[in-house]
Design brief:
six-stranded parallel sheet, eight-stranded mixed sheet, Rossmann fold, 2 domains, 16% strand, 40% helix, 485 residues, UDP_glycos_trans_CS, alpha/beta
């Protein structure tokens, strides 16, 4: 029997990171039957829906999920230092990971497991799990990074990692426009991701990780060559990174446990004309205060366009939790809104994002510009009205609007205040409606919509035999297997 190559996947504990790792793992396994994967789960105290997501997944041969959780009391202790929490939390799992590999896989000899005869071929690490390189080194196998954001963000991260070693920088209050690796246009400092605005304890930890990317054998990016040619070429020319593998869109599966909600939404969409619906959905952590909800409602009603709105209740102030569904959305919507818009609109809680974006009726996506959502929208041919909330989403918005011309701006420098310490920053109905009208004007002749449709076709071809992503994925898998030769 031929020995299989076993990979250890270690995602960050957030839902977007875990789901992306699962979808990437499925893509790898579907491409080569000689590979098998152990995906290690670190349980975050807030969970963020990870456990329910994992429970909804069907079992797959050659893919197993391993719980490597540490003592909850230790996790509580780590929470006392918010700047370091994520990094210390991941570091705290090293011993558990070592024990799992020692007891279940060996890099030197074939071992017998539920996968049959296997040898350890390497670790595939989330962009925040860099310290696990140390564990891979113990077993004398290579590490690879699975970078869940854009190639442009990787370039920006390398740019500022280099900058911090030569000078002090502080762009927290700056209106400068900067020349940054990976971007054709000058980049406004006001939309820099938080780690690039100033050196802080948490940003230092982030750049320490970026520096260690160079120790790995490759970086896998959830993008494709035709979408980000400039950023990918910039990284190649700069010679600052190990080999990069753009492997195309890794779609997160919609929740299998919510078939009833999905059926109701799809039935409604089936009754709408092609490309007529504005879909509003803001990701795992996306929610707004009542003041902002009312402005969105006003914008939708004034615009006159059909809409499907995923409206979620924010968690209590100061708590980092997932939003929840409203028991009665009328409590935050303008009086009579649902009655006045019942013929053209549908307000829901959770929404099956990939299913909705894939539907012929959807014409515009009002999005927080998370990279997973961005890739789903592009590959479904739906233009974005960009309303970033946190993390690197402001950079994603700039990339989409200014660099690629695949979106229009609602407010690019918007930052969500999750702690609720400041007065609510309200985006006006006029700003929201203006973006919608720009994207819905001129139907299929709209320039942004045409560019997105063209990019959708390029994304399809990239995954076909001989396409850029098809080729990149197979080169990566050949490299995985070479590690046990």
């Amino acid at each position: 029997m031929e020995t299989k190559a076993e990979l250890v996947f270690i995602p960050s504990p957030g839902l977007g990171h875990v789901a992306s790792a699962v979808e990437f793992a499925k893509l790898v396994l579907a491409t080569n039957e000689r590979l098998c994967i152990s995906l290690l789960i670190m349980k975050h105290p807030a969970d963020f829906g990870v456990q329910s997501y994992l429970q909804s997944l069907p079992s797959l041969s050659r893919l197993r999920f391993i719980d490597v959780s540490i003592d909850p009391k230790l996790v509580v202790e780590l929470l006392s230092n918010k700047d370091r929490f994520l990094y210390d939390f991941i570091d705290g799992h090293k011993q558990k990971v070592t024990e799992f590999v020692t007891n279940n896989i060996t890099s030197n000899n074939s071992s017998s497991s539920q996968f049959g005869s296997t040898r350890l071929a390497g670790f595939v690490l989330d962009m925040f799990c860099i310290s696990m390189i140390d564990v891979a080194n113990e077993f004398r196998v290579p590490s690879y990074i699975f970078f869940t954001s854009a190639a442009a963000f990787l370039a920006l991260s390398f740019h500022f990692e280099a900058l911090r070693s030569t000078s002090k920088f502080d762009y927290s209050e700056s209106d400068e426009e900067l020349s940054i690796l990976g971007f054709k246009n000058r980049y406004p400092a006001k939309v820099l991701p938080k780690p690039a605005k100033a050196i802080t304890p948490s940003s230092s930890l982030y750049y320490d990780g970026i520096c260690r990317f160079r120790e790995t054998k490759g970086i896998v990016i959830n993008t494709f060559a035709e979408l980000e040619p400039f950023a990918l070429q910039s990284l190649s020319d700069a010679k600052i990174a190990p080999p990069i593998y753009p492997i195309h869109a890794v779609f997160n599966s919609d929740d299998n446990d919510k078939k009833q909600e999905t059926e109701s939404i799809v039935e409604w969409l089936d009754d709408q004309p092609n490309s007529s619906v504005v879909f509003l959905c803001f990701g795992t952590m996306g929610s707004f205060e009542p003041e902002q909800v009312k402005e969105i409602a006003i914008a939708l009603e004034r615009s006159g366009h059909r809409f499907l709105w995923s409206l979620r209740r924010p968690p209590p102030k100061g708590k980092i939790e997932m939003p929840s569904n409203y028991d009665n959305s009328e409590e935050v919507l303008p009086e009579g809104f649902l009655e006045r818009t019942k013929r053209i609109g549908k307000v829901v809680g959770w929404a099956p994002q990939v299913t909705v974006l894939s539907h012929r009726a959807v014409g515009v996506f009002v999005s927080h510009c998370g990279w997973n959502s961005t890739m789903e929208s592009v590959c479904c041919g739906v233009p974005i009205a960009a309303w970033p909330l946190y993390a690197e989403q402001q950079m994603n918005a700039f990339l989409l609007v200014k660099e690629l011309g695949l979106a229009v701006e609602i407010r690019m420098d918007y930052v969500k205040d999750f702690e609720g310490k400041n007065p609510v920053d309200v985006v006006s109905a006029e700003e929201i409606e203006g973006a919608l009208q720009k994207l819905m004007a001129n139907g299929e002749e709209n320039e942004v919509r045409k560019r997105v449709k063209e990019m959708q076709e390029k994304s399809r071809k990239a995954m076909e035999e001989g396409g850029s992503s098809y080729t990149s994925l197979r080169l990566l898998i050949d490299d995985f297997i070479s590690n046990i030769s």
